[in-house]
Amino acid sequence: MKNDNRDRSPAGRFIYLAEKRVGKAITAIESVEKLSNRKNYTYTQEQSSQIIAALENSVRQLQLSFENNNQDDSRKFEFSKTT
């Protein structure tokens, strides 16, 4: 059986989950960063701009959520369709 003596107060749960989730977010961003390797991938400036804009938008939404306690679960990334 696992010895799980972590703080289960709201503040303790926040710290525990924030450390795990922020770590996962950083790892995910680092994974996206690897897509910039031109030796392995071909992409347009427009595609890279869309990725960066989507990530910046998510960070702005994160800031607003902490400032206003807002929740928006409808965010999803897809490349815009260009003709």
Describe it for me?
The protein has 2 domains: 1-36; 43-83. The protein has helices spanning 10-33, 45-68. It starts with 9 loop residues before the first helix and ends in a 15-residue tail after the last helix. By secondary structure, it is mainly α.
Distance between the termini: 58 Å
Give the SSE string: HH
Low-confidence stretches: none
In one word, what is the shape? Answer: flat
Q: Kindly provide the radius of gyration, computed on alpha-carbon positions and rounded to a whole number of angstroms.
A: 17 Å
Query: Structural class of the secondary elements?
Result: mainly alpha
Number of discrete domains? 2
Mean pLDDT: 90
Main beta sheet: none
Classify the helix fraction into a percent range. 55-70%
Number of E-type strands: 0
What proportion of the residues form beta strands (DSSP E)? under 5%
Furnish the topology, listing elements before pairings:
Blueprint (H helix, E strand, L loop, with lengths): L9 H24 L11 H24 L15
Keywords for this entry:
83 residues, mainly alpha, 2 helices
Short structural description:
The protein is mainly alpha-helical and 83 residues long. The chain folds into two domains: 1-36; 43-83.
